[in-house]
Amino acid sequence: MRQLNPANYTDGHFGVPTVTDILQELEKPGRDPRPEFKSVEFKAGVEKITDLEPGMTLSGVVTNVANFGAFVDIGVHQDGLVHISHLSDTFIKDPRDAVKTGNMVKVKVLEVDVARKRISLTMKTATDTAADPGSARVPQRPAKQPKQPVQPQGSMANAFAKALGK
What we know:
Mean pLDDT: 83
Helix content: 10-25%
Strand order of the largest sheet: 1-2-3-5-4
Low-confidence stretches: 129-137
Strand content: 15-25%
Number of helices: 3
CATH architecture of the largest domain: Beta Barrel
CATH superfamily of the largest domain: Nucleic acid-binding proteins
Distance between the termini: 108 Å
Shape: elongated
Number of domains: 2
Order of helices and strands: HEEEEEHH
């Protein structure tokens, strides 16, 4: 390789300095200049949506980020949703502030709806979601109280009431 002339391998895209750098790197056998490739290891035995249970902690890969949260592949042929409110222990305005597509993340299963093929996940580390997976749900609003009829007030209201005989 040291006998090669870099000028023989140049063209409009690659000049002598670039070819020289390439040849120098090729002299280092066994060294790969690329960064280490990491892949997620899905949990053994979890292959179908029916294998999931609330409270399970799994590894996954972010497949898509939307305004309302992030979708995470956890190895069951159906991506789970981490709602924006469950992406972080602190408030975030945009899900892209917490995760990016391709990130490897740890998630906890909150809820599994097999019939609708929906998986709810959380990335929160707070103890309230760890102790009770159901505590992550939004509390139900109290039932609306029936409105009391409004009694009209003012001189026009009194005149109408008098005219109608009330």
